[in-house]
Amino acid sequence: MYGIAQAYGTTVQSIVDANQIPEPNRLVVGQALVIPIVGNFYYVQSGDSLYSIGQRFGINYLTLAQVNNINPSQPLSIGMRLYIPPQPKTRAETLAYLEPRGTFVSEALLSQAREAGPFLTYLALFSYEARRDGTLKVPPSQGVAQIANDTGASLAMVVSNLENFSFSGDLARDIFQSTAVQDLLFNNILEEAKRLGTVKDIHFDFENLPGDQRQAYNNFLRRAVSRFHPQGYTVSTALAPKTSASERGPWTEGHDYKAHGEIVDFVMLMTYEWGYSAGPPMAVSPLPEVEAVVKYAISEIPRNKIILGQNLYGYNWTLPFVKGGPNAEAISPQKAIEIAKKYNAAIQYDLRSQAPFFEYYDEQGKAHVVWFEDARSIQAKFNLIKQYKLRGVGYWKLGLPFPQNWLLIGSNFDVVKK
Question: Which of 79, 222, 283, 300 can bridge 353 by disulfide, Cβ–Cβ 3.0-4.6 Å?
Fold first, then answer.
């Protein structure tokens, strides 16, 4: 750790604090660290030129040569360290879901919200469950509004079609079929928004909708916008990831990208869960698959209305994977590092997926593979947001520690506060 600090002109304690490293003398092979310095350092690789490096970081190659006091026409040596000065930050909106469990908000979850709040436009309270009669099942929220107020974040009320812990297409159908039920639901949402006091956005997360409810959902959203806009609230939606309008499936058919792009103020693409607890091991949000969704989305929705979804977690699979067998365990990036350290596993990085992973054997001799997120995988998504000029990034969900993410938010974006 001392050598790393010396190489980057900073202190060991700064690196430890930035990455929340519990044992500074026990780093994991392949572990990514965020170095809290102004700008970046880049080590020249095979095939690099000043021009290609400048293109990568958005800086003129002559400026790069001047800053590093080198001749712009001289060839670069592999391994040469170049200083990349800081670039202007991109303005972006950020959202993070907060899901209290049980009857109160745990102190651990509140602590995560306090840490994230300064880097958030919206703290999205998940979820207000819409009932078939237009009433709302309200989640615990004590302390959340105060944290939002203290950190300059705005609250988003997440209204869902969850019923008995599952997204119910039948419940949504009942609501969509009755304007009287909708009016009561909207009144109840407004009453709760005013009670909380710091709400700026009403965020609908209606999932698992039958294809025949697609237009009904669009009409519901039109009525919601006409009700909430005059009261000063924006309206947004969560959209399942897909790559064409004709894509079939219970999670995608009911979501009309083009209509949502026209009706609501912004959307959150749920671009994660390719690797999921009941599925085979793979990256949770592999970059090529995420980019394919973005390319389709920008063909239907204005770019400045699109928030890119990002997971704050990974999964630990027991091998061999058996369909219908035990589910993979969801873990935080910090937990993944601790597991790798415990079992002396070297972290590898998959260039295609742009995601870290490692393998190990537990005490019972069972093989495991862990896919998770780190500073490199998050930066790849931030680069995607900048490349496609999207509105920002949204996270599922707080409660899984990932300190590097918030550092990178601060270094990449000028976060919009409402």
Answer: 283
